[in-house]
Amino acid sequence: MKFKKIASLALSTMMAASVLAGCGSTDAGTTGGTETKTESKTETKTETTTDSTGGDTAAAPAEVSHDTEYTVDFYNVAANFQGVQSGWYGKIVKDKFNLDLNIIAPQVSGDGAALYQTRCAAGNLGDLIILDNADMQECIESGLVHDLTDVIEQYPNIAKFMPQIKQFNSMMGDGTKIYAIPLEMNNNGPTEYKQLHVYSYPRMGWDMYNEVGAPELKNLDDLLTCLADIQKAHPTNDKGDPAYAISLWKDWDSQFMENVAQLTKWYGQEVNGSVMIGTDNSIAPLTDKAGAYYKMLNFFYKANQMGLVDPDSATQDWNSMVSKMQDKRVYLFWYSWQYGFWNSPAKGEEGTNYVEIPVADTNLYQTSDTYYGDGRVIAVGSQVSDENFARLMEFLDWYASPEGVLIQHAGTEGLTYTIENGKYTLTEDGLNRFSAEVLVPEEMGGGNWNDGNNQINQWIVASCDINPNTGEPYASDMWATTIEMNQTKTTKEWTDKFGSADDVEYLKKNNMMTVVPSINMALEIDTTDISLIRKQCGDTIKDASWRMVFAKDDADFEAQWDAMTTQLEGLGWNDLVAFDTEKYQPMLEARKNAK
Question: Which of 437, 457, 478, 517 is the most exposed place for a label (fewest CB within 10 A)?
């Protein structure tokens, strides 16, 4: 197969270079062309400048005019919002570029697969496109993506990541051109893990954990007992609203129940398609009863049997979850970034911040920082005019610039942070921007800060990358001033109890975490038959998983699991598992050889 040969050749090059590991109310959008005025194509021009020694430097990017308002159709698999970006971020983009970002979000559209197929069939997926790697490969082969080869190095902020961009694109198309820009890259190095916290792990309010006796948690049963004691003591939040240990949501599901898949990492496996990949580079079917998907699905089932699962879980979406976290109506977090919806230095001094609570039998699957990208890419649609192509590239270069990245990861100067003597410090509004109602001045866009935040929900440059203007990461929680502010009653007491500065140190020290290289590579795309099998099996797994969480008893849970596996086998599950097992072999080989 041609693509497999290309991937194999590129992989050999990667190994030789030892550069394989990585960094760690909705409105319906229009689906047609939405540019307001520009109709005729114009020639994209570049100029070559000469340096003082007489040699040519890189060609300058084409000059663009912002006189015409341009509504950009932005097809985005990462977005949790559909419609035109508004609020403070929308105002920044409009003021700088006279662009309106019309976000088309398959995961909130009702039927993402149908939306994707319809737009592909029409030959116009979007002006800007964010896709998973495999889908981008398919769109390149279908001619839906603009060739960036001759212009990309004219854009200095994107060009800083040319080694990563070239490496990824060596596996796309025929391997000689550049079509897509990996997302969440950094320049810290290919094997670094610089985060303050691990990505997925059990997290509870420090006050509530201590209130129930700060028990040692040996396993998931102990975790459930601890959560049950907390919920018994606090059946409502301080406002009197019902509160639950665990709250789930459906709208992030893909080929499986996403809430379950994220928790498989606690026990050393990551779900990829129909298989689970272990920290030891093993591969097992998702349906392996000895595996982590069954284990964590059973965890949620047991939680529901104990009355710990929010009854809204099967019907609510992510936006509903956000409001519940902000109101402390959910007692178990598992994503590190969920801290932003509650934690603050003031709450840390009160002892009410959420913190990691070790569960002794876990062996966390933690990927390194995404130096080469996170498995998604951004591209320009092939149908855009030359004039609009230049405008989109200008925007993308700004999106990767220190200014654009700082806005993405820290907000805006004066509102969310201040600069004094070169030191960046979060304001009170900056500290609380995800957890409280932060009102934005009208001259900055107005409205609520959270509502106006960047709805693209993916970025070219990861927050762990170093801002050249400060020498610190872009992530505001990693600034020295923020770290100092966060040395609170909660963190000090946590350190005293667990004998470590943070959860990363604790898990490493106690051999409860394995950091695996983050490999970003284009893998074999589905054949038509496999694509159909994957869709049918995915629907079956999602439906059965949700029903099993709410099974009436153990016998019903087991019967539903067995029925699911039988149904999957009838849909071609074994062929899908065989395909995915072969598909991920190049990634496993790359991981083994990562330095």
Answer: 437
